[in-house]
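Suppose a colleague, Dr. K., hands you the sequence of a protein chain of 438 amino acids and asks what its three-dimensional shape might be. Before reaching for any lab equipment, you can write down a predicted structure in token form. Begin with the sequence itself:
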Amino acid sequence: MSVGVMQVSTRTRTQIARRQVVRPREPAPDGGLPDRAGIDGLRALAVAAVVIADAGAGWMTGGFVGIEMFFVITGFLITSLLMAERRSRGRIDLARFWGRRARRALPGLLTMIGGVSVFVLAARPDELYRLGSEVRAGLAGLSNWQLVVEAGARTPDAVTPSLLQHLWSLAVGAQFVVWWPIVVVLLLARIGRKRLRAIAWTLALGSAIAMGVLSLTAAPLRVVYGTDTRAAGLLIGAGLALAFPPAAWAARARGARARRLRFLGLIVLAALIAVAATLPRTDGILRGGLLLVAVLTAILIAVTLRSDEFDRLLGAVPLRWLGLRSYGVFLWHWPVLMAIGGPVVVARPEMSAAYIALTILLADLTYRFIEMPLCQLRYVRESGRAGRPNLAVQAMAVACGAATVAALLTGQADAGGARGHDGDGGGQPASRIQPAAP
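The predicted structure, expressed as tokens, is then:
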């Protein structure tokens, strides 16, 4: 009897283990790294600042803060992934790395572009004159330079926002993902991690200086959208990852040091929130303001890596839920805002609630039914059993793809009208710094 009990017990444990293996859980957005819920919480705070600021909240300049927070987090995570792959595999396979990044980023991006294309074809045919060029630039990761070229010498007030204008920041991030891994592969083995960290932070300082100098001499949009002037946050995050490689994330502070770190984190978080609410919309933002935001964000990430209590604070369930969907929230918030009518319309409480609710709904649907299934190359139902994307998802993908193709085939935007087209434009001028994705 004891043998039979042992067999039943063993079989039961095996069945339980199998159920635990297939039970769905929120996958880490950047697989291969130790789990840090606090970083997802930082993403949530950044995207919340972006959504509120872009809706025209006069009391908050959080769009400036949110974009720089995202840049620092992106630089940190991309470099951490490179370091983790080098440690686990002995080398960095660039093709594999870029493939994984594309699989993570492209499904949501293509879905949003397809949705915008459907909307423009059906409801805003007067904007077709520029949709094709914007889609092409967005897919090529060059939206920021397209904005610089099209703006030319025109004044910011003559520039009309578009449904895909926010892709400029994703383009800056995409360009970083292309060239920074090459730098790491070429230099890390030759000069070591510490020297590469010094190079990253030196380049970040150079980018911040370039932003300040060009803000005195160049067109505003050139400073706002240029990859060279916006690389500081990305490089600060990269340098931080080289200072705290994933292999060292397990080291946690204890005792009095842990309490000091928690206090430091709370002070820096309060300072960042204060900056988001009070940073003036002047050239001072370009002459040190964004650098301050980047440094504060880097400090918060460092505290999160060392303090369990602060990590749990930022990783609270609501914040982490939003942080995991922050990429989708960013992708959808600007098209939804422009489709509704822009900040003037959203200033009404009922429209503001509709704007936020619709943005979060689209982000959640995209995350659960597009991003994660295609990122993992599988579809996980609530029951925990693996399967294929259902017919609705496939039909939506086909419809969005067809609309995107139609948008790509539309006429070129003329030099004088693509961004200087007369009309109300539905919102604020493009001179304002728009937020970026994780």
